[in-house]
């Protein structure tokens, strides 16, 4: 039986860290970081075969944050999972510090791919899954994409390849919060019937509430039982989840909270600055 109470407590702490980190750096992307907290918590604290004390363990599962601008959610998750000291979170986006604006695989323990150019992380993740297959290795690959990101053509080349090579060790999440930097996805560049699109490209597609652990784990279990197809989990989420004035607001895609904003956000999340 999975400990949902414990996982929910972790998500709350990670959300506090996200808003605190971005406030401290005076820049960053809170909206799409907050929307993905449950997904990363489920993966890192339950689903994936990983060892924070040995980040390069040969048979570890891999996770790629393809929407690399949401680095704060990855950093907070890695820190609380034990990959590095939580004090590092205070150095977000500071010159000479570990945690830069986009993930750096050479400088941050636990980061599998340097991402930020949208679509490339997903392509690399599919390549990793193919490598695992070629080596007859046991490890799986997980990736997280944004719904604005799937407007990129490179995503569809990777999707086509993953289905063609039957990469059933590849599981991707689409953080379907409906907003990107310039506004609603449907108005900027409508992605249409995204579930049907991935199905047409040969993927096993599952639709869930991306903030519901029961649905996240059920989808992951279904993905593991699927043979011959990669899985795309289309997770309906709320941009800025957990902070009332950020929720469903495109303006919080890439803005840092003020002192007053931080005080309100932390109060809504239960108070206390990150350690």
Assigned CATH superfamily: Thiamin diphosphate (ThDP)-binding fold, Pyr/PP domains
Regarding CATH, which class? Alpha Beta
Unreliably modeled segments: none
Class by alpha and beta content: alpha/beta
Radius of gyration: 17 Å
Write the layout of secondary structure elements.
Blueprint: H1 4-25, H2 31-34, H3 37-47, E1 62-65, H4 71-81, H5 120-134, E2 141-146, H6 153-164, E3 170-176, E4 179-180, E5 183-184, H7 185-189, H8 194-200, E6 204-209, H9 213-225, E7 231-236, H10 259-268
Parallel strand pairs: 1-2, 2-3, 3-7, 6-7
Antiparallel strand pairs: 4-5
Question: Can you characterise this structure?
Answer:
- It is a single chain.
- By secondary structure, the protein is an alpha/beta fold.
- The protein has a single domain, classed as Rossmann fold, CATH 3.40.50.
- It contains 10 helices and 7 strands.
- Strands 1-2-3-7-6 form a 5-stranded parallel β-sheet, sandwiched between helices. Strands 4-5 form a two-stranded antiparallel ribbon.
- Helix 1 crosses helix 3 and helix 3 packs parallel to helix 4.
- It is globular.
């Amino acid at each position: 039986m999975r400990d949902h109470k414990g996982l929910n407590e972790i998500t709350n702490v990670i959300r506090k860290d996200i808003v605190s980190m971005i406030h401290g750096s005076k820049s960053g992307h809170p909206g799409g970081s907050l929307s993905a907290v449950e997904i990363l918590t489920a993966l890192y604290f339950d689903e994936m075969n990983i060892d924070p004390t040995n980040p390069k363990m040969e048979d570890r599962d891999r996770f790629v944050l393809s929407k690399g601008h949401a680095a704060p959610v990855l950093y907070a998750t890695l820190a609380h999972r034990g990959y590095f000291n939580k004090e590092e979170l205070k150095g977000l986006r500071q010159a000479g510090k570990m945690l830069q604006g986009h993930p750096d695989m050479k400088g941050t323990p636990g980061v599998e791919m340097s991402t930020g150019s949208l679509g490339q992380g997903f392509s690399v993740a599919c390549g990793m899954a193919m490598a695992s297959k070629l080596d007859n290795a046991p490890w799986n690959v997980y990736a997280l994409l944004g719904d604005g990101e799937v407007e990129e053509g490179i995503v569809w080349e990777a999707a086509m390849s993953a289905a063609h090579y039957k990469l059933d060790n590849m599981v991707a999440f689409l953080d379907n919060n409906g907003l990107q930097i310039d506004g609603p996805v449907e108005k900027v560049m409508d992605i249409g019937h995204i579930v049907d699109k991935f199905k047409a490209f040969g993927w096993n597609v599952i639709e869930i509430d991306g903030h519901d652990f029961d649905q996240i784990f059920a989808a992951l279990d279904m993905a593991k039982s699927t043979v011959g197809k990669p899985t795309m989990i289309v997770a309906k989420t709320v941009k800025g989840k957990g902070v009332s004035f950020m929720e469903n607001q495109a303006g919080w895609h890439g803005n840092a909270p003020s002192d007053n904003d931080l005080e309100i956000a932390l109060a809504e999340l239960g108070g206390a600055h990150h350690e």
